[in-house]
Specification:
Elements: H1 5-11, H2 20-29, E1 31-35, E2 40-42, E3 50-56, E4 59-64, E5 70-76, E6 81-82, E7 96-99, E8 103-109, H3 110-119, H4 121-145, H5 150-165, E9 167-169, E10 172-175, H6 181-188, H7 192-204, E11 208-210, E12 215-217, H8 220-227
């Protein structure tokens, strides 16, 4: 069944506090965009005049570490908002958003979105909650990884990906994201070679199955122990 863009805003709890006229306006102004894996949504240093919401798939947020290396700050799941929400266009995005898999995003003109935030306090509260949850998710992931071993960091990240994107698969969980070992390394601050060594050991032990198309967690209990 095909749904229009407004259905997804309602599904993700973003229509609270909007009256019928505002909902119609949001529907008229919202556009859906299909992205192929690797497509860039917004670039560092470029101002954006729209707000994005992930409808399906996954979008990775890319940045630079203090040492100047590329890192993946997090993966956005369906329902996540991103884009510049400041009142002016003078503060362009400092990060790059890129489709991690084939995805669909909805866009709303920023001025329309900000006007609805100003006119509908319950809507503003829900948006604030969603943005806060995303920030806390990113921050807690960084805090969780500090001081942990390489294996613990990778286990934590795989379990986090399974929670956000996983599909039950027999006695395990399938993560249907095409993440390379380099991508996993950028998520946890490890080299590709280190990730490869850990995954190979876990494959041999029957903990995970991984290839270029997906990751299957076969022993989440074991990963929970490693994470701890």
């Amino acid at each position: 069944m095909k749904h229009n863009a407004i259905w997804y805003f309602e599904r993700f709890g973003l229509l609270g506090g909007l009256n019928q006229d505002q909902r119609h306006q949001l529907e008229r102004q919202t556009r859906m965009h299909a992205l192929k894996r690797g497509d860039t949504v917004c670039l560092a240093g470029e101002a954006t005049d729209v707000v994005y919401i992930v409808k399906s798939g996954a979008v990775k947020v890319l940045g630079r570490s203090p040492e100047g290396t590329d890192v993946i700050l997090g993966l956005l799941a369906p329902g996540d908002l991103f884009g510049e929400l400041a009142p002016t266009g003078d503060d362009p995005e400092e990060q790059v958003a890129q489709a991690a898999v084939d995805s669909i995003v909805c866009t709303v003109p920023r001025d329309v979105f900000l006007r609805m935030i100003a006119d509908a306090p319950p809507f503003a509260l829900q948006v604030t909650k969603l943005m806060g949850l995303r920030l806390r998710r990113f921050s807690s992931r960084v805090e969780e990884l500090l001081g942990k071993s390489a294996s613990a960091r990778l286990a934590h990240t795989l379990l986090d990906l399974a929670r956000q994107h996983g599909i039950p698969d027999g006695d395990g969980v399938l993560i249907p994201l095409r993440l390379s070992q380099g991508d996993l390394g950028k998520l946890v601050g490890l080299t590709r070679e280190t990730v490869n060594g850990i995954l190979q050991a876990w494959r041999d032990q029957g903990v995970v199955v991984a290839d270029r198309r997906m990751i299957r967690l076969r022993d989440t209990a074991r990963l929970q122990r490693v994470k701890s």
